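Pasting as-is:
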Amino acid sequence: MTPAEQRARQRRLLLILGPALIVGGLAVLFLVKPMPLPLRIVVGLTDVVAGCVLLLVARQKFGR
């Protein structure tokens, strides 16, 4: 695998995982009811922040 292919694969992976984490975090925040509220907030916001960080890394490393 060439370096260009590796970079494209990394970029694609980051652009898939970032929104997936954000959607998953929002789902935990708003859809999971059996979990206690403070735990839901911590887990959901952690996932949302992690997804935003992945998108930021993708943008800084690979540009638009």
